[in-house]
Write a structure and sequence with these properties.
Shape: rod-shaped
Radius of gyration: 31 Å
Number of helices: 2
Strand content: under 5%
Helix content: over 70%
Largest sheet: none
């Protein structure tokens, strides 16, 4: 009788390649796109830097107010 051959058909290979291309397109879009991971990371870095500057300014204001209070009370060095 005939021996049944097993293997990958051309249709299965083409379908697999198409699915992989779609997955690669989605992954690239999520990584580099307008609202992708890189864009969000850059926005988060900018917000972090702004918050750090604001906190430093508030600490300076607090320190100056505290020093003036100590001077007014006669407790300054």
């Amino acid at each position: 009788m005939f021996k049944k051959e097993s293997g990958i058909t051309l249709v299965a290979l083409v379908v697999t390649i198409i699915v992989l291309l779609i997955l690669a397109g989605v992954a690239i879009s999520l990584t580099i796109g307008q609202n992708g991971i890189f864009t969000r990371a850059q926005n988060a870095t900018q917000k972090w830097d702004e918050a750090e500057k604001n906190e430093a300014g508030e600490m300076n204001t607090f320190t100056n107010t505290y020093d003036k209070l100590l001077q007014n009370l006669g407790l300054a060095d």
